[in-house]
Design goal:
Elements: E1 2-7, H1 17-31, E2 35-42, E3 52-57, E4 60-66, H2 82-94, E5 99-102, H3 111-118, E6 123-126, H4 152-163, H5 167-177, H6 185-202, H7 207-223, E7 227-230, H8 233-241, E8 249-251, E9 272-277, H9 286-294, E10 301-306, H10 317-325, E11 331-335, H11 342-347, E12 351-354, H12 364-371, E13 376-379, H13 382-387, E14 394-397, H14 402-414, H15 418-424, H16 432-451
Helix pairs in contact: 1-16, 4-7, 5-6, 9-14
Length: about 450
């Protein structure tokens, strides 16, 4: 069966959780006999906008379209891009797919789903985050407060700031997103209110209408999919609140390649070895882990941070504020770690901390930590609270509170046998092979429905 994967990025250039999952699934489905092609976005400044480049990921062909959003002329073109649509049309003309599996459309185009509808090609959408309802993808507003869901006026502020070319708007956004532990809370709050006011005056009057059009359009995109796969209950409920019928959403656990974690050998240590693995972004809140560990007894705990600094929606202020914290006593910063080397990081740890402040969906780091035999300490929020059973395979703490995180980590130091009991409660992790087998059966179901054959095609 010929399947087109659509994803916002792809290895080796992009190695976030979405990209790693899509790449692993594509590789196994190829081995199962499916003809997989990947359409992915890349962001290279040395190539012309919308330049198309072809290469391979192992045996899987990858078509990469360069899109830095430099030539967008409207807010709509940031999510519904005619140039990207043209690339997708040409690809489907040359190699008509039986199924299109969308993993993420950021910086690509929702027009791909519309094109599939015109060609009667069934579309599966795996919902890796909230981008289809939130232009920023994480339901976090410019103040890094969790958003209850899309509303035109509030979305206008976030999206208008994110996409305006006016320098004054970007300066206001930078103020809103900066982390400054040295400014008293009252001053910081006042500065945020001032910046918010400036930002709202800077947003064009038409922004609310533009936001409403995006919201309405994204609902129609979701309705156009044959299957919507939700990797967590938290995300599923958000999309139900977004207006999608519950019966259209299917809860499906994402699989990982568990083989690299099967034979890890962990040496004992007198210290509690805590790890943070992931991008160093404000939504992931690695500063909470650093602050928490700084308050633990010296020489009894250490923190390893495996992740690289980078801008958050174009703003590098958090990275600038975090950099000196990464040099704190008791903190070992590994910077960026290639994904194939991550198992060796887990091998040097006793517990993994996931302090995210957004409603995470299906965290690769938690599933990998469990596969490596490591308990997880996580924010009591979203899919983190679904996956980590407090007191059974990990511990939960109050989201955004470094003090409560410190309290929970202190328990691991003070309560004999707690860490061992948490290890014993770690659940089995779904493998990427199991994921691929289930996905292959779903493709066959769609093929059968499209062609009306009396029997589905043979298992590849």
């Amino acid at each position: 069966m010929r399947v087109l994967f659509v994803v916002r990025g792809f290895p080796p250039d992009s190695t976030g959780g979405t990209e790693i999952h899509a790449a692993g699934l594509a590789r196994i489905l190829w081995r199962r006999g499916h003809d997989i092609t990947v359409l992915a976005r890349e962001a290279r400044t040395d190539l012309a906008e919308h330049h198309v480049r072809r290469d391979h990921y192992g045996q899987v062909p990858v078509v990469r379209v360069n899109n830095n959003l430099r030539e967008t002329t409207s807010f709509e073109e940031t999510y519904r891009n005619p140039a990207v649509d043209a690339v997708a049309r040409a690809l489907m003309d040359d190699e008509p797919p039986d199924v299109v599996h969308v993993h993420h459309l950021t910086s690509l185009s929702t027009g791909i789903v519309e094109e599939c509808a015109r060609r009667d090609i069934p579309v599966i959408v795996t919902l890796h985050d909230y981008w289809l309802m939130c232009h920023r993808g994480q339901l976090l507003d410019l103040d890094l407060e969790r958003c209850r869901g899309p509303e035109p006026d509030r979305c206008a502020v976030c999206a208008g700031l994110a996409d305006s070319a006016r320098p004054a708007v970007h300066r206001a956004a930078r103020w809103l997103r900066v982390l400054d532990d040295h400014v008293p809370r009252a001053i910081a709050d006042a500065r945020r209110r001032l910046a918010s006011g400036l930002a709202r005056r800077a947003v064009p009057e038409s922004a609310a209408a533009e936001a409403e059009r995006r919201i309405s359009h994204m609902r129609s995109v979701c309705v156009g999919a044959a299957h919507l796969l939700a990797p967590s209950k938290a995300l599923l409920e958000q999309f139900v609140a977004f207006g999608l019928p519950r019966e259209r959403l299917q809860l499906v656990e994402l699989g990982i390649d568990t083989r690299p974690f099967a034979r890890l050998k962990r040496q004992p240590s007198e210290r509690l070895r805590i790890g943070f693995v992931g991008s160093l972004l404000p939504s992931k809140a690695p500063h909470l882990a650093i602050e928490a560990v700084q308050g633990l007894p010296p020489r009894r705990a250490e923190l390893t941070v495996a992740g690289s600094l980078g801008p958050y929606h174009g703003d590098a202020s958090y990275a600038s504020a975090l950099r000196p914290l990464l040099r704190s006593p008791g903190v070992r910063w590994l910077n960026g770690v290639a994904h194939h080397k991550v198992p060796s990081v887990y091998e040097s740890l006793d517990v993994v901390v996931v302090p995210s402040i957004w409603l995470e969906n299906s965290l690769l780091v938690i599933r990998e930590a469990f596969a490596a035999g490591l308990p997880v300490v996580a924010s009591n929020l979203g899919a983190m609270a679904e996956t980590v059973a407090d007191g059974r395979n990990g511990l939960l703490f109050e989201p955004g509170s470094s003090a409560d995180l410190r309290r929970v980590l202190q328990r691991l130091l003070d309560e004999p046998g707690l860490l061992d009991r948490l290890r014993e409660g770690i659940p089995r992790v779904r493998t990427i092979d199991e994921d691929a087998a289930w996905t292959s059966a779903l493709y066959q179901e769609l093929w059968y429905g499209r062609h009306g054959r009396p029997t589905p095609p043979p298992e590849p």
